[in-house]
């Protein structure tokens, strides 16, 4: 009986620790989404309801907390990356669907994606994850426009595919929306027109 009670107590502590750790990560993500690119530990502790000292019991440092938060966000939005369009869909419609999809995806992940890119030069794990995501999105574009690319000379197809990948990337769309100040609709129109011109 004593052993059982001890195990129950230990399980309860583990469960509480897990809940608190998730609360810290979610608080960090909330602050990032609200416009604070690198929340301080005090802010995270206050938002999560966990003591300042406890934050460092769960994470070795702020970078580990950021990596964990990035990973949690990726798990939450992974389904948004999927895109299925019939291959016989007209080019303009495929371009519009892709652009609409990317704008929605990047708007959702924007604050954390910017954080990831800020951390990447010093954190190989984050850098590798960005490369993996870029690779997935690159393949998505190549498959979506395979009919047009396959009809080109290989060297031209490779160049066009590279330009399409850049046009539809998080970085390009973020620049159009934030740096150039284009509305979502204007950015979409510009991207769809560019894609169709490249492939027509």
Q: Care to give the gist of this entry?
A:
The protein is an all-alpha fold. The chain has 10 helices and no strands. The mean pLDDT is about 90.
**Structural class based on helices, strands and sheet pairing:** mainly alpha
The backbone outline, from C-alpha atoms, is elongated
Low-confidence stretches: none
Order of helices and strands: HHHHHHHHHH
Q: Can you count the beta strands?
A: 0
What is the total domain count? Answer: 2
Rg over CA atoms:
22 Å
What percent of the residues sit in helical stretches (DSSP H or I)?
over 70%
* Fraction of residues in β-strands: under 5%
Mean pLDDT: 88
Helical element count? Answer: 10
Note the gap between the termini: 76 Å
Largest sheet data: none
Could you characterize what this model shows?
- The protein is an all-alpha fold and about 200 residues long.
- The protein is about 80% helix and about 0% strand.
- It is built from ten helices and no strands.
- α1 packs across α4, α4 runs antiparallel to α5 and α6 packs across α8.
- The longest helix has about 30 residues.
- It is elongated, with a radius of gyration of 22 Å.
Helix-strand layout with pairing:
Blueprint (H helix, E strand, L loop, with lengths): L1 H32 L7 H8 L3 H7 L3 H16 L13 H29 L4 H21 L1 H5 L3 H14 L2 H10 L4 H16 L1
Helix pairs in contact: 1-2, 1-4, 4-5, 5-6, 5-10, 6-8
């Amino acid at each position: 009986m004593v052993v059982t009670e001890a195990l129950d107590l230990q399980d309860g502590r583990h469960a509480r620790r897990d809940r608190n750790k998730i609360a810290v990560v979610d608080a960090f993500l909330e602050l990032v989404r609200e416009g604070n690119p690198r929340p301080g530990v005090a802010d995270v502790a206050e938002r999560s309801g966990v003591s300042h000292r406890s934050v460092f019991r769960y994470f070795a440092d702020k970078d580990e907390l950021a990596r964990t938060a990035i990973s949690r966000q990726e798990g939450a939005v992974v389904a948004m990356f999927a895109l299925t369009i019939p291959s016989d869909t007209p080019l303009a419609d495929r371009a519009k669907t892709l652009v609409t999809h990317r704008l929605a995806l990047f708007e959702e992940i924007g604050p954390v994606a910017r954080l990831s890119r800020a951390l990447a030069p010093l954190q190989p794990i984050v850098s590798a994850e960005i490369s993996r995501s870029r690779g997935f999105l690159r393949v998505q574009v190549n498959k979506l426009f395979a009919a047009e690319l396959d009809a080109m000379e290989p060297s031209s197809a490779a160049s066009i595919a590279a330009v399409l990948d850049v046009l539809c990337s998080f970085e390009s769309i973020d620049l159009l929306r934030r740096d150039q100040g284009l509305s979502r609709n204007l950015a979409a129109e510009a991207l769809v027109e560019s894609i169709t011109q490249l492939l027509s």
